[in-house]
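Quick illustration, no need to memorize.
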Amino acid sequence: MKLPSYDSTAHEVPEDRSHRLILPRRAPKAPLRQVARRLMMALLVLLATVFIVWMDRDEYHDNADGAVDLLDCFYYATVTLSTTGYGDIVPYGDSARLLNILLITPLRVLFLIILVGTTLEVLTERTREQWQVKRWRNAVRDHTVIVGYGTKGRSAVQTLRATGVGRDRIVLVDPSTKVMEAAVAEGFAGVVGDATRSDVLLRAEIQRARQVVIATQRDDTAVLVSLTARQLNKRAHIVAAVREEENAPLLRQSGADAVITSASAAGRLLGLSVHSPSAGAVIEDLIQQGSGLDLIERPVVKAEVGRSVRETDDLVVSVLRGHRLLGYDDPEASPLQSTDRLITIVRAAVSEEPDLPAKQSARPTLPGTTVSPMRRLDDE
């Protein structure tokens, strides 16, 4: 097996950073800003207490000299709010004691809450995060797990989004905390960790996933991830990318249902673009979902059963019958059967927002897709 020299997914992850599920959340405020805000609140509480004591200073008694000045008010407010209470300055009048009960005591409680606010916020955030993760685990089903959020992983996500898959149906796995934080900011759930370990994939709920996309940079990493994923989920459809074509059979043996040779596929597209630039542009358009022409797989509709391939409403490239892939010109492809699946070329519906799945138009759409038959659009 030929192994490339670098793969971010194969890097070791610090123990305190691994096996962590990150769900989409609002961006937190800067720590220094939070601390400054709390210090300002504490200072305001202290000043309010000083003002209350100063306004009623004649009802207080200082054991040192009997009188209470501004410095004594600050001193009394400080030791009172911090619950130290030395007892050298005490309220002896009824109004002073009443103000202590009604105002200074609530201010003392508020001051303590501000002081321990950081701890309370951490506990609250952890509780909220645990509850959110638990709810997410109970709800996620038939999702897509994408291992590796590099160039290939991002392209896979863009394609899935263009075909109508929501962000909540995609879970990313990558060892880089920064990469996962960026993905979470985009609205995806992610797991920080080494995907070759079963406990990391279990945190992504791979045992309930419908599809697994392996987009690592190293072929040996892809093989290990495929083996682990297949062991944890026997029914998932696993698609993996390899860089060296000679490693594709090994990856299929490890459990991958489909293997894409990224290096050779790019080379073929380069060669085609040199020999026939227009044909290369068309192929690139076909594999880029959501714009121009799309190459999709769909079931045969009831009205098409018994018809010839050429009698369908869109351009059929191949017919999938059982485990056989028949070309459009194969005599056995016609007539179509109800259990067949068609690989067709369609024109993608125009989307107003590029980050959202293509919107359905008023024209008839193909079953299980958000695109319209190409010939119908042309005929109009």
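The longest helix spans residues 31-55.
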